[in-house]
Amino acid sequence: MSVLPVLRAQDLEASTPEQHWLIEGLWAREAVGIVGGEPKCCKSFLALDVAVAVASGAACLRHFPVAQTGRVLLFAAEDGPSIVRSRLEGICRIADVSFEGLDVHVITAPSLRLDLQEDQVRLRETVEALQPRLLVLDPFVRLHQIDENAASDVAPMLGYLRGLQRRFRVAVLLVHHARKAAGGARAGQALRGSSELHAWGDSNLYLRRRGDALRLTIEHRAAPSVDGLAVELRKEGQGLALHLLEPGADRPGPPHPDPTILERVEQTLAAASAPLTRHELRTACRLRMSTLGEALATLASQGRVLRSVRGYEIVDGDSQGSVPVSLSL
């Protein structure tokens, strides 16, 4: 019987703060994770911006410094080679880096199925040959024919990618879709499919639209997270790329945190011209009935919401003849 290798805790390799990041504040060194969001939220542009930053050393989103540069290996399943080239060239123009010297290698195979052992072997051998610092796979839905909702199907694929990360010390960025109309859920919990996907990530980036504004949430396993950063897709000459908007910038949609569930319910009631039924509130706030009930109970206990025979309303000086909402909603 062979014994597993062990080390005393104090003998484990230590890392300095400078060694922790691939892109400072945005993506941890050798991290696996997700770039997620609903359709048309610029997920692929964000993934390509990360790729250009790592390959060139230019700040990601014109804001986040790169801590470690290196080769990038990219598979873009939904975009043709000419589109990938055009987007990378555009980002390079805006980032003021040489496209000709960009160390990004694009997998041109028509398909890559990570639920098939043959393709797993091919990808592993490609990573071994090129030794990239970052592997970008876009999007997850085109990499398999499994049931995304079944943890027993999803976990082996994610385990394979984690194995690549550990064996070759490569960061892995996986682009994935969020569920439609999942605005009420936390960013990671809004991802489509098994919760294994959210739990897998060391660094995760989530894009959401709030009207015309695009918001970025940054989530890390071992560092503070940031929510509600405003970004925009901006055209400059021949280039097209995402930019982080600085707080107070003279642009639409300056960064501010997304409203909490309690704030959403309270704001919806405050904007209504008449009391709202529970069904109307659920539809307007896009919440589950159980979540709405908990929010109303909390607001009621704080004296901020009343219930009348016509429905729910916000507490203000003009509320007459209403009965406080009970906690048994």
SSE series: HEEEHEHEHEHEHEEEEHHHEEE
Uncertain regions: pLDDT < 50 for 5+ in a row? 248-256, 317-329
DSSP helical segment count: 9
Widest sheet, order of strands: 5-4-6-7-3-8-9-10-11
Biggest beta sheet summary: 9 strands, mixed
* Mean pLDDT value: 87
Please tally the β strands and state the result. 14
Q: What's the CATH first level of the largest domain? A: Alpha Beta
Domain count: the total is 2
Termini gap = 59 Å
Here the CATH topology of the largest domain equals Rossmann fold
Structural class: alpha/beta
> CATH superfamily membership of the largest domain, which one?
P-loop containing nucleotide triphosphate hydrolases
What's the CATH architecture of the largest domain?
Answer: 3-Layer(aba) Sandwich
Helix content: 25-40%
Shape: globular
Determine Rg (CA atoms, Å).
23 Å
Relative strand content:
15-25%
Provide the fold topology.
Blueprint (H helix, E strand, L loop, with lengths): L16 H4 E3 L3 E2 L3 E6 L5 H14 L15 E5 L4 H15 L8 E3 L10 H14 L3 E5 L12 H18 L2 E7 L18 H5 L2 E8 L2 E8 L5 E11 L2 E6 L16 H11 L6 H8 L3 H13 L3 E4 L2 E4 L8 E2 L5
Parallel strand pairs: 3-7, 3-8, 4-5, 4-6, 6-7
Antiparallel strand pairs: 1-2, 8-9, 9-10, 10-11, 12-13, 12-14
Helix pairs in contact: 2-3, 7-9
